[in-house]
Amino acid sequence: MRLLEERIVKDGEVKEGGILKVGAFLNQQMDVALFEEMAKEFRRLFDGCGVNKILTIEASGIGIACMTAQAFGCPALFAKKGRTSNLSADVYTAQVESFTHGGVSEIMVSKDYLGPGDRVLIVDDFLANGAALNGLIKLVRDSGATLVGAGIAIEKAFQPGGDLIRASGVRVESLARIKSMSPEGGIEFC
Amino acid sequence: MRLLEERIVKDGEVKEGGILKVGAFLNQQMDVALFEEMAKEFRRLFDGCGVNKILTIEASGIGIACMTAQAFGCPALFAKKGRTSNLSADVYTAQVESFTHGGVSEIMVSKDYLGPGDRVLIVDDFLANGAALNGLIKLVRDSGATLVGAGIAIEKAFQPGGDLIRASGVRVESLARIKSMSPEGGIEFC
pTM of this prediction? Predict the structure, then answer.
């Protein structure tokens, strides 16, 4: 998606250690006009697939998920990291290793909100090693819902997650796929 | 806001210990069509105030913040809890006590995204003792931005946060104000 690629080049910052900072427009400050365009593109890509629920993981996927839900006319749902007192005891869970925080965390979604009647599009801001996406896929499968596919804003295509998950049979559509990046050389898209 | 009050009565669950579960439509599963109506109401209430940024706190405020940002035609921004590797070192911080998690956490927002040029509307899903809202107000004040006010989905008006913050001179508009609630007696609005 040209609009997103151009924005990454304009306002993204490549840091050492494979980190791309896009907090200016994607995952801390959120340009919702851009999100609307991204949501329309997800709608175009997954049109006719009967999507009736958008699933993401807190926190940075939530904005994109809400705008995508608006485009599909369905609810959005986010998996939580760790247990809180206002979450039902009856949850689907998965283990996810965090790239940005380090360590392993448990993600979970209430059984009340995901089940066999759902046709789920997973959305997230980043796909790199695939840890978060694999966790979300497990939640969908455990619930008996149908996984339609995954819509990702930015895929680090030089990391193996996307290809491995596609090879497992899941449809993954990424709006911007980064082939390589470095603080000196900038960003090259696929 | 009648639409929200009706939805709270229909799909909310009052638990022991002053907990209102609204995960079915507000803070885990998110009814974005409802959020659109809430956002329109915030726009109506704060119209003409020059709002150019919506600020919230992760995670459950983000969806409402994005829809509100769409209604105002401005970006949304969320404060993070705890430090991560992809957040700038240069941040405004505040201490916030959590009602649902217990304990105190540090919230922060990058200095890159909040400053003297901003006219900020804070939005959040709940207002009870005011801990999160006070933390967000501190971030806005420390940044030199102008605080226009706060738009809250559900205020537990039987807890002191809202009145204390209003008494300090901040305009707080809550779409549903709960006067009392109990598992046996149900919910009474102000």
Answer: 0.95
Distance CA B151, CA A129 (A): 38
Give the C-alpha distances (Å, rounded to integers) separating A131 from A2, A24, A57, A95, B68. 26, 24, 11, 9, 31
* pLDDT beneath 70, residues of chain A: 83-88, 99-101
Q: Tell me whether residues A86 and B77 touch, CB distance under 8 A.
A: no
For residues A176 and A5, the answer to whether their CB atoms sit within 8 Å is yes
Q: Name A72's Cβ contacts closer than 8 Å, sequence gap at least 6.
A: A42, A43, A46, A51, A52, A54, A121
Domain ranges of chain B: 2-189
CB contact under 8 A, B67 and A66: yes
Size (chain B), residues: 190
B23 at interface of A, judged by CB pairs closer than 8 A: yes
CATH code: domain A41-178 is 3.40.50.2020
Chain A residues touching B65 at Cβ < 8 A: 30, 63
Mean pLDDT for each 10-residue chunk of chain B (190 residues)?
98 93 97 98 98 97 98 97 65 84 86 97 97 97 98 97 98 98 96
ipTM summary value: 0.94
Pick the CATH number of B2-189 from 1.10.10.10, 3.60.21.10, 3.40.50.2020, 3.40.50.720: 3.40.50.2020
Give dist(CA B63, CA B58) in Å, integer. 10
Chain A hits for B43, CB-CB cut-off 8 Å, are none
- Nearest CB among A66, A84, A102 relative to B101 is that of A84
Closest C-alpha among A30, A46, A36 to residue A3: A36
**Residues whose CB falls within 8 Å of the CB of residue A42, separated by 6 or more in sequence, listed in order:** A68, A71, A72, A121, A123, A151, A173, A175
Contacts of B57 (CB under 8 A, 6+ apart): B78, B79, B81, B96, B107, B124, B132, B135, B136
User: Tens of pLDDT along B107-148?
Assistant: 999 999 999 999 999 999 999 999 999 999 999 999 999 999
Hey, CA dihedral for A12, A13, A19, A24, is it positive or negative? negative
> Which residue type does B51 have?
V
